[in-house]
Amino acid sequence: MLKVKRFEDDEAVVQGFEYGSGRCENMMGALLMKDKNGMEFKIGSGFNDEIRMKPPKKGTVVTYKFQGRTLAGKPRFPIFIRVHPKM
Predict the structure, then answer these.
(1) For the segment 17-40, what is each residue's pLDDT rounded down to a tens digit?
(2) Do residues 33 and 43 make contact, with C-beta atoms less than 8 angstroms apart?
(3) Which residues, 6 or more positions from 41, have their beta carbon under 8 angstroms from its beta carbon?
(4) What is the DSSP letter of 85?
């Protein structure tokens, strides 16, 4: 039997970041995000050390993937994919 996890992706705007702890001390731990519906949430995984040392600036649009939404409407297990390319 093969277990398949379904992901959705979306875009959101960076509102800021929190510093990490442990291995990520003195680096970004999580991005504080706001989606197009005004829902605020954090993305804390999917980053390499280069991005953690120089996180996206406030107002930057990023693409992330997630596994559905919570009852409150927040993305479940959001994972950073990339900074949205400028159009």
Answers:
(1) 999 999 989 999 999 999 999 999
(2) yes
(3) 12, 33, 35, 74, 75, 78
(4) P
59: left (phi over 0), alpha (psi -120 to 50) or beta: left
Q: Which two tokens stand for residue 52?
A: 């953690």
- What is the distance of C-alpha 24 from the center of its chain? 16
User: What are residue 61's phi and psi, to 5 degrees?
Assistant: -95, 130
Phi-psi region of 36 (alpha: psi -120 to 50; beta: other; left: phi over 0): alpha
Nearest to 8 by CA among 64, 62, 66: 66
Residue 23 token pair: 């291995």
pTM exceeds 0.85 for this model: yes
8 A C-beta contact, residue 64 and residue 76: no
For residues 18 and 28, the answer to whether their CB atoms sit within 8 Å is yes
